[in-house]
Structures
1.
Amino acid sequence: MSSAHTTTQGVQVTAAHALVDALVRCGITAGFGIPSIHNIALYDALRLQPRFHHWVVRHEQAAVFAADGFYRSSGKTAAVFASTGPGNLFTVAPLLESFQTHTPVVVIGTNVASQMLGKTCGALHETPQQLDIFKPLVRFATRVTLPDGVSTAISAAAAAGGPAFVEIPHDLLLAPATLPDAWLYPEKPESLPFPDEIEKALEQIGQSSKPVMVIGSDVQAGDCAASVQKLGETLQSPILTTTSGKGAIADDHPLAMGCISRLGVAQELLLESDLMISIGARFTEFDTGRFSLKVPARHIQIEQDLSHVGLQFPFTSRLMGGIGAIAQTLAAALKARQNWFDVAQKRAEENQRLQALRAEAYEALLLLRGALERNDVIANDQSILNYWASAFFSVLAPRSWLYPTGSGTLGYGLPAAIGAACAARQEGRRTRVICIAGDGGFQYTSHELATLAQYGLPVKIFLVNDNAYGIIGFLQRTMFGHTHEIKLKNPDFCVQAEACGIAAQRVSDFNSLRRQLPGWLNSPGPALLEWRTEIKAPWEVGAIHRPANLPMKTG
Ligand SMILES: Cc1ncc(C[n+]2csc(CCOP(=O)(O)OP(=O)(O)O)c2C)c(N)n1
């Protein structure tokens, strides 16, 4: 942009230009969306901004999942462009996922023209109280009411620390606007708790001889993971993660004890310890065995934001503020300790027990892990293999694990994988992205095969096809002794992928899987591998104990 009033192309700056300029100034240089009559001016402004990379998708739902995957894999926020009514409403389910996982995503949605707002007059796409629909699902929602209001709205949305929704009546996008001279992008300094709170936590750590840390997704942010790891090393405390915190510590680190969602050894460790230090961790129903997890009475909770926590275990000390700064302060004040728990021994025993189950799901995950680089990204959908992966897949690098823990929604895997692959391409990283999905979940967003093919992104889809909503069948059998409406007559997924121009292959037994997996993974562009099988749920074969409060059919 050359002046406050004209673009470098010499045309009058409009609110659409100012909005795109504001995104770039906030460091948001990628976006996903679908052009529409209401946001058409925005797309023209996007065309004129070479620093912004837009990726066109096939459904607004996929746009938000992709932006979510973009952030989780890169730490960089992406925008979503949707339009009035249906376009915006299709972003609602993915926003729930981003909201619950603290994932920043900026949705820019239009509304009917200003003079039509609040009226029921048959305007195209008009939606009653559109802004109010979004408010509970985002950390910041606003309507722009003046053309010059876009810059402030975008900068507040970018700083929201979670998903944000900026609504603009479409006529404003074409209205003349000015670019701000001074840019006010709020910097957020890392805050520390009061010294007496830190003292209290240090005292409790001093009284404990068997500390355990549980770390969650907020630890993946910035340099935080390194500071938290340093605290663990100082204390020689075994470190567990939540499902969305996987990767915050490499699973082959000598203190890494894996994910709490597998309960078993994770639960035993927590019972043996005398202090839990939870850091940026959201204790969800899924991760805690339907809220049955038992934790030590002494609990230091470290959080940057209370809106993020799930199950509120009682705490004996709570430290609120910048997680990295808090971890650093604690580590600096503590003396190095000896380890009290043999992590390597416990994990070897567990691995032996799991191998003895001879479960193909577990073996497939070992096979996959063995064939991947440390930084390759796994984007999960919701299927039996994903539950196994949450519990047992070894994640070796931060931001290389995407899992829809916030909403547990089907359809996340493929578009999130696309978002991660776009981030890698934009940053020049040679990372493979593997999407693990079941046949049921895959079909929620399989239209995004076309997006994948359009950009030739190196996403490898591992599709486990049991022609059923398999996990629901398992639950129905367990609870009622029968199944109902879980069988699926599916399309030929290989033909579907090939029709989009994506290489596809099918295997039906484990030996073929072993043989074909490397070729599929190492092929240059996108590729689909369909594994026709009926794998058993981890609860069915005893890899994870069934929560005691799961209703079961008896007799
Ligand atoms: C949007 C949404 N609808 C319904 C569900 C409930 N649900 C969870 S898993 C599942 C079955 C998934 O089937 P599939 O992807 O084939 O995996 P499988 O269970 O067969 O391994 C269903 C219906 C959900 N999680 N999300």
2.
Amino acid sequence: MNKATQLLVLLEENGDEIVAIESVVDTRDYEEGPDDKWVPIPGSGDKRCCDRCGRNHEIHWQVTVKDSGGKKESRVMGGGCAQQMYAVIDTKEVKSLASASISIKKMETQLAAYKALLDDYKKIKNTVERQSVPDIEEHPPEFSNLIKTLKIKVGQDKYIQDGVSKSQKESDVRRDLVSRYHDSKVLDVIKQKYSGSIRIGRFKKPQLLGLLFNSSLENRLVSNIKPLERSLDKQRTKLDKLQKSAVKG
Ligand SMILES: [Zn+2]
């Protein structure tokens, strides 16, 4: 038993005592706010009556309560009641347990949104890549160090172009042009589908679409997903530890 746990001493008047915090479940939905921070949607959670005070709460603390006769039972409370009843002199650990649970919920929602967008991107890319590609046109070199200039039409009078120099393989330049052609077609579909901006939750995310012009959405999303998955793992490990240490006796 650790020090913080030993400090958990106060009993309810009727002798009931919380001996374990089984879980803290944040039932609210999250969305990306205008400032890029992920925030809970007010009222989106599952409102449940606290077993102790009867007030509604959306973050459910599932606790094990032991009565004066030693009988244990599971109850669900709001955070305020659970913390009061847990009778913690040093509430730090219990607070971190709750905040770890809440961050996990938030990160899971965030991760799911990025993954859904990534999936959608991949689907669109697959469809685009199955369509036929216009012929690559060959033009006289535009600079003296080029052998020729290659152009591929992406829209009305719009071309993607590149020159082949003596040091380059023409097949590499052609492959690169086709891949840039696909990127531009994918971008067209996404722009149309998301009507000018990518929307996650209630908020439009024009900045996400803006990123498409600089780097591929796929890379951008993957680079958001990787660190998020790592922090999520860390939080889960932390929560696991906290939950173990929040068991008394
Ligand atoms: Zn309560």
